[in-house]
Amino acid sequence: MTMTQNTPPTQQAYPKRHLFAASGVALLCLSLIIYPSREVEAKKTFITIELEEQANEQVTDFLDEQLIETAHDTVEDSAQEVAVEEDVDTFEYNKTLTVASGDTLSVLFNKAGISSTVMHQVLDKNKDAKRFVSLKPGQQINFEFDQDQTLQSLSSQVSALETIYLEKQADSNTFKFRNELATTEIKEKFAKGTITGAFFNATNQAGVPYSIAHDMANIFGYDIDFAQDLRTGDTFELLYEEKTLDNKTVGTGKVLTARFTNRGKVYTAVRYTDKQGNSSYYSANGSSLRKAFIRTPVDFARISSRFSNGRKHPILNKIRAHKGVDYAAPRGTPIKAAGDGRVTLAGRKGGYGNTVVIKHGQGYQTLYAHMQGFAKGVRAGGSVKQGQTIGYIGTTGLSTGPHLHYEFQVNGIHVDPLSQKLPTADPIHASEKQRFANTSKTLLAKLDAKKDSQIALNE
Ligand SMILES: [Zn+2]
Predict the structure, then answer these.
(1) How many other C-beta atoms are found inside a 10 Å radius of the C-beta of residue 233?
(2) Are residues 43 and 176 both part of a single domain?
């Protein structure tokens, strides 16, 4: 096991951000060297503010450094005298800056006339404050000051739903993070479609948001292999939640019920929340759709080699049994634990390369080979949950390209995970049966009514 391979691929983006932040701090320092005098600082503040007032009325979206710089030249002479005199009166206690492409937080602090000392007070030792560091062009940052021109808070609306704040604590120089979430309305949406090519093309055409389509594939993922089993003419219909704010769609909720007809066989899923508040998906008759094992440990991967008792090994060039299934997928694609269990190996294993072995109990064991690296926290002796990412697709060990070699053992004997009958999870408990039946009946009646009314509309 090498440490360098343990890093998930998503973390590779961070150093760039650090670079930006670092260059921002450098800029800030540079500007302090160039403008050391207080008078000049005050003048600068005044000019920026006057322009902002104009900008707020007319061109809020276009407020950027260039605009300020250009205008700076034209108003500099006339503003100079007035600025010194009326510095306090014209001080704006509430400044809103719009993030321009390439702006870092330190650039914005500089524009708002805030010292780097204060910036460090705001950001230091505050984990959540980091949320202010990842800025998007067009995003607005609001700075609030008190009578002493001391920064009191900064805030930013980061999405239609969320505004984040950093607020100065009354008797210290520390800033506390908080966020505000808008209350959304949940609406039920209906959609239906037919498979003619790729699954996501069909769901997209039906107007189903990507996250909901992904959830639907996961819900049926124990029975239908969405990479292998889909056929032209397969159909689906579903009811799902949509989050709205002032009648505008701002997000999605849960899939409430869905029906998928795959090669003539109908699969139905109903979401049910039991009396303890646990939610899960069940078939219409109340059996769980969650099996003790996930059929495919990699989403939407292509099977590049099946289980066989004798085939020519691509590297060793000898006839060898292939005691697993190979899934080809791009490097870095997450690999999921097929079931709950205990990790017995997370490390190098000869020709298998980086390998994870999980013992699931009742004689079941799964193995995942050729990984690029392991997911954080996955180590021998630890436990994993079904569906948890344990590592990433790679091509370590004896391997010709990025893929997962996946083995499934029952009582020490290799079996084909694609043909193996997988044990099922618990069905609806007897004490919940009546309540489930009511939920299921209501949801499926709604689904059918929507489907019928849409068919009538189309005719
Ligand atoms: Zn293999």
Answers:
(1) 12
(2) yes
